[in-house]
Amino acid sequence: xKAALLWTMLxxxxxxxxxxxxxxxxxxxxxxxxxIGVLQVDLxxxxxxxxxxxxxALACAxxxxxxxxGCGGLMLRNGATLEMNGHTxxxxxxxxxxxxxxxxxxxxxxxxxxxxxxxxxxNLSASGGLDVHGGQSGIVALKGKAFLQDVTVSGVSNNYGIxxxxxxxxxxxxxxxxxxxxxxxNGPVIGSGLTTNNNHGAGVQSYGRLNVTxxxxxGNGEDTEYTGGxxxxxxxxxxxxxxxxxxxxxxxxxxELKPLxxxxxxxxxxxxxxxxxxxxxxxxxxxxxxxGVCSQD
Length: 297
Fold this sequence. Notes:
By secondary structure, the chain is mainly β. The protein has two domains: 20-144, no CATH class; 170-297, no CATH class. It contains two helices and 30 strands. The protein has a 17-stranded parallel β-sheet that branches. The protein is elongated.
């Protein structure tokens, strides 16, 4: 027993403080393959995040000997993790570039403010109290899957708060006051504790299976420019449990703004879930036909 306890005490420092940690102190730095970068100061990258998507920044990211991309953001190589360490990256981007990184992670607490948010061109994990707000983009997993836990995205008024092109798993995630709260292209959306309120368009818009426990979606879709509704699923099955989806609207598909909480191609399965208005999704349809699953259908 004493020997086991001694080994545990000896291992704790190595778990908490990895030997491969890299101090991140300036915009343009790279986190090397499989290593942890620890943000040591608040950064303002001056809005030059577009330079991170092209050479010479991308050429640097592909060169193991290069450590400074010179672009307005931070780049993560394959298997790298950025620990925000309570700090802020402002007016830049945290980027996991395609062809360089197959997966990457960002761990809070910390803030990504303005700029182009957190952008992964492959698989992404974000967690630990990360706050992304006020940028031209929120959290994007462009070609891969994403796992999000204890993450908040807000104030992305001209783009999606969260957009994922394959599987999205989430736990305790909030996406409020964006153009669209959560947008999922292909894979399923699975998780618990999702809040999507007061987005210009839909709270959650999906093209695959949606299975969420503890969804709160209210006040979405009051901007007629966008497809609105609390939950919109144009292809897959929808299962909501212990959820509240009320006070949402949609106008772009209809002749006028209409109350619409659950708008699905297939009949939704609602378990201990409150909603006011549902509709059967019809492409180019102007008449709202309810499913008969919400209180005011």
